[in-house]
Design brief:
The protein is mainly alpha-helical and 183 residues long. The protein is built from 8 helices and no strands. The chain is globular, with a radius of gyration of 16 Å. The protein starts with 7 loop residues before the first helix and ends in a 5-residue tail after the last helix.
């Protein structure tokens, strides 16, 4: 199954740097050559297919370690956005699921075992399962709630992207309109 691979041109298209600059925080999983590119979707279509979404969603539900990371991301949302006006907390788990799917499909190329291995390595470094979960979830949450991460989630999930705050979607629409990319 072919998954989305990060591409510097995506960052440039969204207005973050240029097509030659780094775009992922973890360069170990970033693009390695001109072959590591993808076709960017139109405004209404998502890069991740429903089949890919369902496969990763089921993996998150079925693999205990991934479920724990998702739950930690939900907790991170509550801590970080505790006083966000207009937040729809009923979407919290759906947002966490999409953040995990975004991370799995970009940094891990759809391979849930790579995330499990990353977690085990973090656990060895930290000495505690709870600390490893918290650090992994914090990293993923932090990355995919930045402006670039929000735009990436829009690209990955199209109109199905879920956010806690309606302001996130307004910000995306305003940015697209300002750049002349209206839908």
């Amino acid at each position: 199954m072919q998954f989305f691979r990060p591409d510097c041109r995506l960052a440039a298209r969204l207005g973050f740097g240029d097509a030659h600059g780094p775009f992922v925080a973890d360069q170990r999983s970033g693009p390695r050559s001109a072959r590591d590119t993808t076709v960017i979707r139109t405004r209404e279509r998502a890069v991740i297919t429903q089949e890919q979404y369902d496969e990763l969603s089921h993996a998150i539900d079925d693999v205990p370690m991934l479920r724990e990371v998702r739950d930690e991301i939900v907790q991170a949302q509550k801590v970080v956005f505790h006083d966000l006006k207009g937040a729809d907390w009923t979407r919290s788990e759906a947002v966490a699921r999409q953040i995990m799917i975004a991370d799995l499909s970009t940094r891990h190329h759809g391979d849930v075992h790579r995330m499990e291995e990353e977690l085990r390595q973090c656990e060895q470094r930290c000495g505690s399962h709870a600390t490893a979960l918290q650090q992994t979830a914090s990293y993923i949450h932090s990355y995919f709630t930045t402006p670039l991460g929000i735009m990436m989630r829009c690209e990955l999930f199209g109109d199905g992207a879920v956010f806690l705050s309606p302001e996130a979607l307004k910000w995306i629409e305003d940015r697209a309109e300002a750049r002349g990319h209206t839908s």
